[in-house]
Amino acid sequence: MNAPAPDPGASAQAGASRAWRIAYLEDEAVQGRALSIWLEQCGYAVDWFTRGQPCALALERGSYDLALLDWMVPDLSGFDIVQRLRQREHTARLPVIMLSGRDTEQDVARMLLAGADDYMVKPPSPAVLQARIVACLRRGTAAAMRPPLEHGRLRVEFEPRRVLLDGRAVDLSPREADLALYLFSNLGRLLTRAHLANVVWGMPQGLDTRTIDVHVSKLRRMLALEPAHGWRVASIYGQGYRLECLSGPDAS
């Protein structure tokens, strides 16, 4: 792999007590070996897998900071692995970067909607890949360090991505959790339906706005987002929603 010399100053783990762990899936030997060596030179601890099933099991059982997955590999594709990771609580937010020779808009959109955080066409530019790894790790670290939000009957924990009502975790689907945490992360801000469709559903166009309305209505009920409990979900006609944290009970 023709890679520039790694820039230590660009590493996401500068000052960290241990190397960031990356699970790397690539069945092509020459490319897999070259990229593994380069990642290790960048300061990452890399476990390289040539088959999908062992990679998926290691991700589910191990403690990795990021997954770098090829799409088309023997026995279990990167696409299937992403879907498995997103269905398990402890891997639901693991950063995943997909590598593939498939470069159509439909392929990229399909993978992102399946749960990948980023997508790069092979062979990846080393400098750009390094930058995207750093960005994914930075986002994950920021979420993990964010303090819980408590008000009224609710406690919102941004990691491990859950909402507690009266001390009990509310059973939210992955999409409901995405929407709830995004609303709580943007208190007092008007979020248009188009913006929510893009950020939460990954679909800037083509999403029926009623889908968003149904999800918001369900969250309002499941999380008791009512003025009597210190919260208000304001519906802005023709635009979207604004989640408001009230200083006290306000039924007006």
Give me the strand/helix succession.
EHEHEHEHEHEEEEHEHHEE
**Shape type:** elongated
Strand order in space, largest sheet: 2-1-3-4-5
Instruction: Quote the beta fraction.
Output: 15-25%
Strand tally: 12
Summary, kept brief:
The protein has 252 residues and is an alpha/beta fold. It contains 8 helices and 12 strands.
Q: What can you see in these coordinates?
A:
The chain has 252 residues and is of the alpha/beta class. Helix content is 38%, strand content 20%. It is built from eight helices and twelve strands. The chain has helices spanning 29-41, 52-61, 78-86, 105-114, 126-145, 174-185, 193-199, 209-222; strands spanning 21-25, 45-49, 66-70, 96-100, 118-121, 149-151, 154-157, 162-165, 168-169, 191-192, 231-236, 240-245. A five-stranded parallel β-sheet has the order 2-1-3-4-5, sandwiched between helices. β3 (66-70), α3 and β4 form a beta-alpha-beta unit. α2 (52-61) runs parallel beside α3 (78-86). It is elongated, with a radius of gyration of 20 Å. The termini are far apart. Mean pLDDT is 82; it is low at 2-17 and 248-252.
Give the tags.
alpha/beta; elongated; disordered N terminus
Helix-strand blueprint:
Blueprint: E1 21-25, H1 29-41, E2 45-49, H2 52-61, E3 66-70, H3 78-86, E4 96-100, H4 105-114, E5 118-121, H5 126-145, E6 149-151, E7 154-157, E8 162-165, E9 168-169, H6 174-185, E10 191-192, H7 193-199, H8 209-222, E11 231-236, E12 240-245
Parallel strand pairs: 1-2, 1-3, 3-4, 4-5
Antiparallel strand pairs: 6-7, 7-8, 8-9, 10-12, 11-12
Helix pairs in contact: 2-3
